[in-house]
Design brief:
Blueprint lengths: L3 H11 L4 E2 L1 H10 L3 H10 L2 E6 L6 E6 L7 E7 L5 E7 L5 E4 L2 E4 L2
Parallel strand pairs: 1-5
Antiparallel strand pairs: 2-3, 3-4, 4-5, 6-7
């Protein structure tokens, strides 16, 4: 079942309405990842995990690139008005593993 945060982000991904934070834009440029790839990732990629913090009310959702072997993932905060793209990361095999088609953090 999709969480409210995931539904919110996917809705705005389909409308191509995200706020891209400076850090995310810098990482995208470094890694050759386009805004369109970020929108596709959020719209059709699988959710790796959700992060909730006691310090702020935002929920961050990590979406894996929609591919057989995802090379990157995006971290998007479900904020008040529009989702904010926080960062774009390359998938580190030391941190993430694929099990039964799902990407999860290694234990």
């Amino acid at each position: 079942m999709k969480s409210v945060a995931e539904q919110f982000i996917r809705h705005f991904a389909s409308k191509r309405k995200f706020v891209f934070r400076t850090h995310a834009v810098e990482r995208m440029m470094e890694r050759g990842i386009t805004e369109e790839q970020v929108y596709e990732c959020a719209e059709t990629g699988c959710v790796m995990e959700e992060q909730k913090s006691d310090e702020c009310s935002d929920i961050k959702v990590l979406f894996a690139e929609p591919a057989d072997r995802p090379g990157f993932y995006v971290v998007i905060a479900a904020t008040n008005r529009f989702p904010h793209v926080v960062t774009v990361c390359l998938k580190d095999e030391d941190v993430w593993e694929t099990v039964n088609g799902f990407i999860r953090r290694r234990k």
